[in-house]
Amino acid sequence: xxxxxRSWFRHFDRRETEREIExxxxxxxxxxxxxxxxxxxxxxxxxxxxxKQFGDVxxxxxxxxxxxxxxxxALRALKAFLILVFVVGVLFRVLGTELHVTRVGDISIxxxxxxxxFLYVRSMNPSSFLSNPDRTPLRLNDEPIRAYDQRMRTPVExxxxxx
Amino acid sequence: MANxxxxxxQGTLELLILKTLAGxxxxxxxIAQRIHDAVDDLLKIEDGSLYPALYRMEERxxxxxxxxxxxxNRRAKFxxxxxxxxKQLDGERANxxxxxxxxxRILQTA
Lengths: 163, 110
What we know:
The complex is a heterodimer of chains A (163) and B (110). With 163 residues, chain A is mainly alpha-helical. In chain A, 70% of the residues lie in helices and 2% in strands.
């Protein structure tokens, strides 16, 4: 029973989706780097070329997570349910004459609004809060590299500082 | 001669992916390589742009995915064309041929 509930909530877990995408991206970069190494590139150059060929890793991950989470049937059902709760709450509030009925209406409205707010905040990408001036892209071969890791390091910084 | 850099529209990339998966299920890197081999240097496609396209297509039901083992014994997500995807591919192919014929005709007129 716990496993069923856990698997259902996995669909709302943004981190699970991010982990899946991260795994795919890592494999892709690894295979691409191996292919470039076979072209007699150095390890450093092959990694940099692989990242360049792949594109902006963080942006791609963010897009995939957004797409993955936005239209899941369970999420749509939950959104529809919250709308229904909101409408019922408004009806109770407007049409109810007794205090306990209007209170139920108030509570329903608050629950619906908070629920939608929660879903909205969960869907947001933390990196979208960073302003552009916070990002100072380095250049490789006169082209800006736009891929940033969790610590906001560019690929070249990762190449230099990672062991 | 300067390299021609052609911007690829989103729908075109999805058509390329559908065609690539028509043969066999593949993971993202395999799809990217097959597309690069097919288009050679005619089109510049960033490998990463495949992944949002794959997620969109899965959302629409054109492809399905399952975790498997890659050629280097790593866990990989394999994508497979669904029945709806095959239907979409046939429709898109017919549409593409129609559009390209029309444009060719216009370009050939004086």
